[in-house]
Every structure is written in structure tokens, then in C-alpha cells.
Amino acid sequence: MVVAHCRAVLHGHSVFAGGGKVGICGVVLIEVKAGAPCVRFYGAMRKELLSLARAEVPRYTSYPTAAQFHDGVDEAVYRQWLGELTSEQSLSLYLHVPFCRQLCWYCGCHTVVVNDDAPVRRYADLMQREALLVREAIGDAGRVRHIHFGGGSPGLFGPEDFSSTMAHLRGLFDLDADAEIAVELDPRAMNDEAVANYAACGVNRVSFGVQEFAGHVQKLINRVQSFETVRGAVNAVRAAGIERLSFDLMYGLPGQRVADVFASATMTSDLRPERVALFGYAHVPWFKSNQKLIRDEDLPSSAERIEQAQTAAEVLCERGYVRIGLDHFALKDDTLAGAVGAGLRRNFQGYTEDPADVLLGFGASAIGNLPGGYAQTDKNIRSYLDAVDARRLPVVKGLVLSSEDRLRAAAIERLMCDLSLEAGALCEEMGFAIDSLDASLAATSIFEDLGIATRSGRDLRICEEGRPFVRSIAACFDAYFVPSTQEEPRHSKAV
């Protein structure tokens, strides 16, 4: 397929594909298939929705969000919560590896660059010791349904460290036979020995950080990896018997054009990962200093971000993917697609069908989600290591959940996952008065007026055109939400 550069006038707007500017109504791209041009129109969005796309709102991978965490949740509180867990409560484990060989300039994760393996090996040893401390505090632990290694670059764990960590976890916890074991990997750092070891350790899902295939964009984000590199990594893990693959793509990157996003989404679909996550780049240089290496003038405008997001989504859906919630896509026969409307969840890793009752976080900056509330470990790697070395659980902040927090968390999760909410029924189910969320429902009237949501009694539905704004609609149910100001930005853009 060839993507041709073109210019057209649609709905009174000049629209460019390729290196030029694009209009808010969308972009025309010409696909040449079997020698015959096929004109397609991508990225359409009504002009009056542009201000909504510019708004800054939380991502709602948790509620309340991490902005509400405080130091009142410490080791003592965390130990109490762990001690209250029972064997009937299923578990998920998240292990954070905060190291990389090279820092990507767009990155918003907690990670540092290391040039040798010694710090990584010490970290692996102490993270195993943290897992032991947690297991001892639980007493009678439930079965583990899911293990996820995130980062950073978990691939910096060599085969010996990864094998010993998995063996340690299996010795501490009772893993389901069909538990998902997922690892985030860098396609540039793959080798046959590591891939074979992942398969031998039971890894059955690999997530690749792709972001964008266009070389000029890769240079501006300091992450250069060719399509051939990614395709080789995909072939390697599939040859080892690891069939479940996920890709991360991004829009809103410096120098990125609609045609780049179109091409990257197309090439991604050619490789057929079972899942694709499509994230908007959040430019927060006041929070992540590495992002200061990205120039503001290189970033796409809000209108261009919208067109990029819509274009990628439409390409993926045309090529056999089902849209999941806000920003995930899955092939029709993938279990995530099957969970839509029937058990889809949202957590710190995004959308999941993981049904576990408890999420335990291990490693520096990891967040756990327990019935009592959220608990986060020390972000400072040295402080984290010192605490574990002294046999202390390294939790330094978190949040005790109130009953109202749980109600609002459930409401926001259903909106984020299902694009709908039966607010009255949810209130009754959770022991609240049926009208407990009425004020939040009333606040969604602005979205009704724009025609992107409908309300019947206490039932709220978000239409397909409103999908990109689900975070903004969810914010109506956030009792802590304070809109960002130009002087004090807090969140990422809605689109």
C-alpha cells in the first residue's frame, strides 16, 4: 500500500495529508491497492468539540487518582491491609523495573539509565526480598491470576535474574494454571536466549513499545527502531511459542503528522498483535525533566492531535480490531474484546479482563490496590533498596478509600470501560441512596447539549462520537477534580 500526499477541500476546510497542515474536519489519504486509488476520509470531528479535546483531565487508571495520595499511608497501614487479606481474594502482581539503557525523551515513567548490570542485579535480589516480606505479612494468600513486569525496561533483567524472580514468586504464591504472565519489552534489545527463557518461565504475553515507525519522529523522541527490528522481535517471540502480543502506539509526538500515524497504524495491523494501546503523548516537562529535550514548537496542534487519534483508530478498526474503551484495540477473537460489556476492567496498566480482587505492587514507585486503599512504594530507588534491605516494607504514601470513593470509582470505571452507567442501580447495589450520584449526572448536561451523551432517568450513555471525551465525562463523577489552569497544569489533554 502507498499513502499518497494530497490536498482537498471538504466541508469548506482545506485538508492536507503528508507534511502540510490539516483541518479539524479530518484528512484525506489516498490508498493505492492493486494499482487502483481508493480515497479515504479519516479523523473527522466536529469543530465545536475542539475545546473539549484541549481540556486537561485525569487518565483514570485509578480513582481517586495518584494526585490524592499522601504520606498517611505508610508501612504500618500497609501491613494491616495485607494482614486482612484472605485466601478467597485473588491476586495480581505488578513488578516495576525502573531501569533503561537509553532514556526516551517522551517518557513519563519512573526510570533511570544504567550502563552496567550490577545495579539491576541488586535490585532484582531486593525486589524478591520485598515479595517475601509481603507474603509473610499476608498469611493466607489467595491465588494469583496475573503477573505483569513493567518499567522502565524489564528486559534488563537477564535470563538468570528473570528466572530466579519467577521461581521465587512461584514459591511464595499459588499461581493459577492459566495465569497471564506479561512482560514489557524493548524490540531493540531482543536476543534468542532471552526469548527462550521467557517462554520457559511461563511468559505468555509480550508488550512492545513501538510508539511510531516514522524515522524523523523517532529521532525527535530519541527512540530509533526500524520496522524490520520490530518485525524481527515479533517473529522471535511467536517462534518461541508466545502468541499473545501487545503494541503501544502514540500520537501527538514531536514532528508527527497524520500521514505518519496512518502509516504506523497500518504497519502495526500488518504484524497482527492481538492488542494495541493508542496513547496521546502528555507533554509535562515541569514534571519529567527529560521532556525538556522536546521543543514545544515541534508538537502537533490540538486539531492535529485529534486527527491523528481518530485516524489511527479508524485504520485499526477497518483492519479487524475492536475498539476497547478509550484507547485500546483488540482483535475480535481476543479475550479483551470478549470482556467488553462482560467484565472489562481498568487499572494502572490500562484495560484488562483480569478479575483479581487485589493488586500487589513490587519495586520502586509501584502502586498496589487493596480493599483498604492504595499503597505506593518509594519512588527513590536508593531509599527503596535501603528500606527492603532493612526488612521494611517500602510503602511511603497512598490513600484510604472511603465508601463514597468506592462508589465513584465504580461509576468512573464503568464509564471508562462500557461508555455507559446505570447510576441508580449502582448506588443501590453498593448500599447508597438511589439519588447519590444525581449531582454528577446533572453535570453531564453539557455533553448532552453537544450530542455526545444521552441520559434517560439515571442511565447515562456515551455515543461513539463522544468516546474520545469519556475522561472528561468521567470527571463529572470525580469529587476531587480541580480543572487545570495555564499557570498550574495538572493533567494530560483529553485527546
Question: How would you describe what is shown here?
Answer:
The protein is α/β, with parallel strands linked by helices and 495 residues long. The protein has three domains: 2-42, no CATH class; 65-400, pyruvate-formate lyase- activating enzyme (Alpha-Beta Horseshoe), CATH 3.80.30; 402-480, Arc Repressor Mutant, subunit A (Orthogonal Bundle). The protein has 16 helices and 26 strands. Strands 15-16-14-13-12-11-10-7-19 form a nine-stranded mixed β-sheet. A three-stranded antiparallel β-sheet has the order 1-4-5. Helix 3 (118-138) packs parallel to helix 4 and helix 8 runs parallel beside helix 9 (302-318). It is globular, with a radius of gyration of 23 Å.
Write the layout of secondary structure elements.
Elements: E1 2-4, E2 7-10, E3 13-16, E4 27-33, E5 36-42, H1 50-54, E6 56-57, H2 75-83, E7 91-97, E8 99-100, E9 112-113, H3 118-138, E10 143-151, H4 159-172, E11 174-185, H5 192-200, E12 205-211, H6 215-221, H7 227-239, E13 244-251, H8 258-271, E14 275-280, H9 302-318, E15 321-324, E16 328-331, H10 335-338, E17 345-347, E18 350-352, E19 358-362, E20 367-370, E21 373-377, H11 381-389, E22 395-400, H12 403-418, E23 420-422, H13 423-429, H14 438-443, H15 445-449, E24 453-456, E25 459-462, H16 470-474, E26 492-493
Parallel strand pairs: 7-10, 7-19, 8-9, 10-11, 11-12, 12-13, 13-14
Antiparallel strand pairs: 1-4, 2-3, 4-5, 6-26, 14-16, 15-16, 17-18, 20-21, 21-22, 23-25, 24-25
